[in-house]
Amino acid sequence: MVVYAMEVTRLNGNYVGDRAPVFSQKSHGRPQQRLTHEEVVERFVDYHFGRLTPAVNRAIETHVRSCARCKREGLTNAAAERQAANRRLRRVRGGKPLIGPRGRLALLALTLLVVAQIALFQVTRGQEKPLLSLINQWRAQGAVGAPPGAPIALGAKWRMPAATAGASAIALSADGQTLAVAHAGAHPSITLWSAKSEDQLAALTWTAGDAPSTLAWSPDGSMLAASSSSTIIIWSMSPYKVVTQFQLPTAPAMRVYDLRQQELIASPDPTSVFASGPLVWGPDGALSPAPTGAAGPTGVTSPQTPVIGFWSSEGVRLFGAGGGSVHIGVSTADILSGAALLDWSPDGRYLMWAALSLPVSGVGSSPASVPPDAIVQTLVTRVLTASKAGSEPGQNDALLWFAPDASRVAVCDRTQPNARMRIYDIASGAATAILDMPCANLPLHAAQWTADGAQLYITPINGPVAVYIAPQA
Fold first, then answer.
1. Over 80: is that where the pLDDT of 107 sits?
2. Is 400 helix (H, G, I), strand (E, B) or coil?
3. Could you give phi then psi for residue 77, rounded to 5 degrees?
4. To bridge 32 with a disulfide, which of 27, 112, 344, 395 should be the other Cys (CB 3.0-4.6 Å)?
5. Angstrom distance (rounded) from CA 34 to CA 27
6. Mind giving me the DSSP string for 84-121?
7. What one-character DSSP code corresponds to residue 164?
8. What span, in angstroms and rounded, lies between the C-alpha atoms of 412 and 241?
9. Rounded to 5, what percent of the chain is helix, strand, coil?
10. CB atoms inside a 10 Å sphere around CB 276
């Protein structure tokens, strides 16, 4: 029933007055309101704009359907158009917002909390500008903007905890589970980290005076060797304790130790031991020239193999040695810092230490080491040119870290100004990535490939150990 808050008068059984409802027959059990033509015309504008009650709307629509005059005046079409519009509007149902004001405030607070936690996490990983660092990592991971075939700009995928900053050497166990990090400074030490969880597993005390600069895991990961310019210390991993310790001679020199007997067993001549190329371990710890092809088609060797070579995945330095020659091995600066070549026999019983260098074939005298590929040969030429031009040490050398399968190589060509590390595909000779890692002042054992060659761990001069994902060929 329609009721209006106004005065109405009943005359002759009908309601009359201002906007007085007039009822006729019932529709579906409800009284149907009836309007005159003049009342319809008077109220049609309000009807068109939806200002009337549903009962009055129905009365107007009922009238115009049976009114010949309404058809002539166009009221019928207008009413039909309004009904069609209403039907369309009813299909577009409004709804409440999915999140109310309180929900939006809660979501904002949660977002700020997550951002704060990410920033705190980045700070604990050694990032001075955590949010900017995070954005840069996202950009680096996307590697966008590089044209096809051009090297991509590669940033660190993630970084180890801040306590790994300033490392003098790193080494990854053969199973990729444990990262050993050597620390210089006032109190040299070696820390062990889980490569998966990034938790610190142990801290090994370094008792020698000078800091360790070379690390090497035994093939089964049960022992870790570390050397400085004067000392080798070997630890067992279960439990963590020193197995033995040896005093080193003044370099250049080479030594072979028996860990079971804890004694020196050989002192090969450093000027001739590699005269015939790579060496191979014997069952009694003896070293002899490797058979032809034992080092594979590239001549690059990796740890935990029977073959020992100067082109090693553990790190290689090319440097101008004066007199128009280029050498591979350890430079004068390496000898002073204690960098060396450490290699275990496959059974983990014998350990070789070598701090020596050899001329590179084509630019020096015999015995000489042959560059394994065109990338290295190009570097040799650049180093030789820089050396002849009188460049300072550190500006006439190059550092190389071959992937264990020799499919790619990370290069720091320090003959170039402001050099950054690059990754090359050895088969094609093309640079596939340019890292955001400056090459200045990097130590020889600053980088370490995983066994599958997919990831590269690098310790910068400042900041924690960074992990890069190598681009796929």
1. yes
2. strand
3. -65, -40
4. 27
5. 12
6. HHHHHHHHS-----SS-HHHHHHHHHHHHHHHHHHHHH
7. G
8. 36
9. 25, 30, 45
10. 12
Give the global pTM: 0.70
Instruction: List the one residue out of 343, 404, 338 whose CA is nearest residue 218.
Output: 343
Please give the Cα distance from 131 to 366 (Å, whole number).
54
Within a 10 A sphere around the Cβ of 436, how many other Cβ atoms?
16
Q: What is the pLDDT of residues 193-252, one digit of tens each?
A: 999 999 999 999 898 878 899 999 999 999 999 999 999 999 999 899 999 999 999 989
Q: Which two tokens stand for residue 111?
A: 């977002």
User: And the tokens for 188?
Assistant: 């040299």
Q: Tell me which residue has tokens 């050597």.
A: 182
pLDDT of residue 14: 38
Q: Which domains does the chain have, with CATH numbers?
A: 22-91 (no CATH), 104-142 (no CATH), 149-469 (2.130.10)
User: Backbone phi, then psi, for 21, in 5-degree steps?
Assistant: -70, 140
CA angle 218, 242, 163 (to 5 degrees): 80
Mean pLDDT, residues 272-289 taken together: 91
